[in-house]
């Protein structure tokens, strides 16, 4: 079946602008994650959604970052007033469940460049 | 929290030979899981193999096997019969607390398979 879909694949924005990144998880997967991959920091956890539970936002780097998941499916990661240090690849993943052994399936990512 | 260490920034292997990619972990949690992911130059993160802390046998998936040594806190990935398509970044990741969100990733190892 279809994998995790992310859009756009590339985004170039000017410093100070807001951006929205979209993630469409695999159908039937209840857990959804956002990670960030940058040269300096490697792969970092940002936020996690599981069903109707409150999301774990502990990885969001600042209050400029927010995410929502509507209807238990599509998720949007929003970065307000972008800064150059926000430049990275933003990876979305989903999994069937969160018990150990249920692998995360990643999308191809959105490459964000802040100029 | 987990700490994942991959000490090999880069590795080279001849086609058809086996290669071992190192990963050590550090957690005080008795329940944890270890994952290996492959990231080709295209950027997608591909799940390869998983090992749970309570699993009695080393995990195997086709040409991939995990050499899991709890006493040494190591979970090395062994790729047998290397193929040119195996050239990629390989990430070891850990999850603890019986859940597999908040994966902690190592810095990765860039594997190059030579013809």
Index terms:
heterodimer, A: six-stranded mixed beta sheet, 0% helix, globular, B: 115 residues, mainly beta, six-stranded mixed beta sheet, 12 strands
Largest sheet of chain A: 6 strands, mixed
Number of extended strands of chain B: 12
Q: Give the CA-CA distance, first to last residue of chain A.
A: 37 Å
Question: What's the overall geometry of chain A?
Answer: globular
What share of residues are in beta strands of chain B? over 45%
Rg calc of chain B = 14 Å
Radius of gyration based on Cα positions of chain A: 13 Å
Largest sheet of chain B: 6 strands, mixed
Low-confidence stretches of chain A: none
Number of strand segments of chain A: 10
The number of helical elements of chain A comes to 0
Helix/strand-derived category of chain A reads mainly beta
**Mean pLDDT over the residues of chain A:** 92
Characterise the protein shown here.
The complex is a heterodimer of chains A (115) and B (115). Chain A is an all-beta fold and 115 residues long. Chain A has no helices and ten strands. In chain A, a hairpin with a 5-residue loop joins strand 6 and strand 7. The N and C termini of chain A lie far apart (37 Å). With 115 residues, chain B is an all-beta fold. In chain B, strands 2, 5, 6, 10, 11 and 12 form a six-stranded mixed beta sheet that branches. Chain B has a four-stranded antiparallel beta sheet with strand order 3-9-8-7, with no helix packed on it. In chain B, strands 1-4 form a two-stranded antiparallel ribbon. The termini of chain B are far apart. The model of chain B has no long low-confidence stretch (mean pLDDT 92). Chains A and B meet through strand 4, strand 5, strand 8 and strand 9 of A and strand 5, strand 6, strand 10 and strand 11 of B.
């Amino acid at each position: 079946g279809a994998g995790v879909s992310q859009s756009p694949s590339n985004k170039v924005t000017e410093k100070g602008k807001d951006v929205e990144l979209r993630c469409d998880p695999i159908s039937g997967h209840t857990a959804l994650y956002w990670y960030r991959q940058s040269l300096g920091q490697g792969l970092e956890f940002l936020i996690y959604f599981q069903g109707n539970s409150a999301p774990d936002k502990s990885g969001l780097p600042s209050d400029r970052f927010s995410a929502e998941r509507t209807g238990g499916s599509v998720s949007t990661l929003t970065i307000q007033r972008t800064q150059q240090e926000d430049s990275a690849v933003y990876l979305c993943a989903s999994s069937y469940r969160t018990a150990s052994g249920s692998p995360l399936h990643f999308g191809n990512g959105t490459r964000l460049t802040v100029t | 929290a987990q700490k994942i260490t991959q000490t090999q920034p880069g590795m080279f292997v001849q086609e058809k030979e086996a290669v071992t990619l190192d990963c050590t972990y550090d957690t005080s949690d008795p329940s944890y899981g270890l994952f290996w992911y492959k990231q080709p130059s295209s950027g997608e993160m591909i799940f390869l193999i998983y090992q749970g802390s309570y699993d009695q046998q080393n995990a195997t998936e086709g040409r991939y096997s995990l050499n899991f040594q709890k006493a040494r806190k190591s979970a090395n990935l062994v790729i047998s019969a290397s193929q040119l398509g195996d050239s990629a970044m390989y990430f070891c990741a850990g999850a603890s607390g019986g859940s597999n969100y908040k994966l902690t990733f190592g810095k990765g190892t860039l594997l190059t398979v030579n013809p």
